[in-house]
Amino acid sequence: MKTYRVPYSTATLEFELLPGMRGRLVESQRLPPLEDVPAAVDAALAQPVNTSPLCELARPGDSVCIVFTDSTRACPDDRLIPPILRELERAGVRDKDITLLCGIGMHRPSTPAEKVAKLGQAVVDRYRVIDNEPQNPAALVDLGAVNSIPLSVHRAAYDADLLIATGIVEPHQYAGYSGGRKTVAVGAAGEALIAYSHGPRFVDDPHTRLGQIEGNPFHEAITEAALRAGLRFILNAVLDDNGRIVHVMAGEPVETHRRLVALARTLYEVAIPQQVDVAIGGVGFPKDANLYQASRAPSYLHFAPTPVVRPGGYYITPARCQEGAGAGVGEQRFLAAMRDAPNVQFILDNARANGYPPGGQRAFVMAKVLEQCHVIIVGSECPEIVAACKLIPAPTMNEALQIVAADLGSDLDVLIVPHALLTLPIVGTFERSNVGTFQR
């Protein structure tokens, strides 16, 4: 029997399929990691896309805000932000005029240790580092509305003479691909914008899909929000399955992101011949620290251009979930919506009739998954929370597979996606295939 491995927290989980099950391993394409990351970042900053270098954009006396991602994102900010700061120093910008803003969105505030892990002790000691405050009107600037969407951004970002953002470009549930403008437009936004842009109108829209940029209303909304906020420069990276940087690019937000998405598609999008009965999607640290984030694995696979699993099938995700559902406002709203609803249909009907606050979108998305398929969470430290959220807890992968076999039998096609957030299976497309045949 073939042994498969998927991430589980900071380690890996090994398992075999049950007799009769046919497995297919799906991984993103292979691109060589950058051999000299500092040199590549310096080169990107020296020759940015469609704009001048930072050392020419900034002037002595300018206020600068750099928005970076929180600990739920694997963005290598410790490799990206120090070079940006050096460029600003070259331009004569004073330390006291620089603010580093952690784009937490509606997640919990970042801890001092997380700030150090993200930026490095030297940066935290030298510069002002703050968190977004999405529920504090005094900390936000109203940017008006576009297509009835209320736009807002943290005052530190809006008031800056130069607004910069870092990020990673990877498949995203709503934006199609993350990075670019999203770090500012969502990470540094107020609750109203996050609520509307994550609302049922957007999530139900067939153009709000993983991998889709063109015609995506969510992507269009965050683009407008970031431009109104004054975002002028981004430094974004593309990572491989192991978190290594394979490409980095800097410059004007729209064109830089467009070029990075084109490259990311060649890396992350992988062909599979047909839908399967079961998909095992890995997450790993930091995403599997709580159920809110870990549940992205089944929803990413389900909201591929075509759902990976056929109706009635199963998604399985190993996740430690040592933080339970998650401690942030959004995470707790997700928990309440999933736990307190009498059934999945109620979640869907209530959301479409009454909307939901930020965080509720994850419950709505998971209800849309559960409307068609089952979801098993393996190895959770909070099985009671998993069950309360209408998902199925299983202590081990073998027990999860036994649950599936008891329902569907063992004559099944199983897709194993070790990095479900960094691999986008495209059903019925063979132009960029990196998969073999199903194997018993």
C-alpha end-to-end distance? 7 Å
Q: Helix/strand/pairing class, anyone? A: alpha/beta
Tell me the name of the CATH class of the largest domain: Alpha Beta
Query: Which CATH architecture of the largest domain is right?
Result: 3-Layer(aba) Sandwich
Strand order of the largest sheet: 3-19-15-16-17-18
Strand content: 15-25%
Please tell me what the overall shape is. globular
CATH structural fold name of the largest domain = Rossmann fold
Cα gyration radius (Å): 21 Å
Count of individual helical segments: 18
Q: What is the domain tally?
A: 2
**The CATH fourth-level homologous superfamily of the largest domain:** LarA, N-terminal domain
Largest sheet: 6 strands, parallel
Number of strands: 20
Roughly how much helix do the residues carry, as a percent range?
25-40%
Which ranges are low-confidence, i.e. pLDDT below 50, for 5 or more consecutive residues?
430-437
What attributes does this structure have?
six-stranded mixed beta sheet; globular; six-stranded parallel beta sheet; Rossmann fold; 2-enoyl-CoA Hydratase, Chain A, domain 1; 440 residues; single chain; alpha/beta
SSE layout and pairings?
Elements: E1 3-8, E2 11-16, E3 22-25, H1 37-46, H2 54-57, E4 64-69, H3 77-90, E5 98-103, H4 112-119, H5 121-126, E6 128-131, E7 140-146, E8 149-154, H6 155-158, E9 162-168, E10 171-172, E11 176-177, H7 182-185, H8 191-197, H9 200-203, H10 217-229, E12 231-239, E13 245-251, H11 253-268, E14 269-272, E15 276-281, H12 291-294, H13 296-302, E16 309-318, H14 329-340, H15 344-354, H16 360-370, E17 374-378, H17 383-388, E18 392-394, H18 397-408, E19 413-417, E20 424-427
Parallel strand pairs: 3-19, 4-5, 4-9, 5-6, 9-12, 14-20, 15-16, 15-19, 16-17, 17-18
Antiparallel strand pairs: 1-2, 7-8, 10-11, 12-13
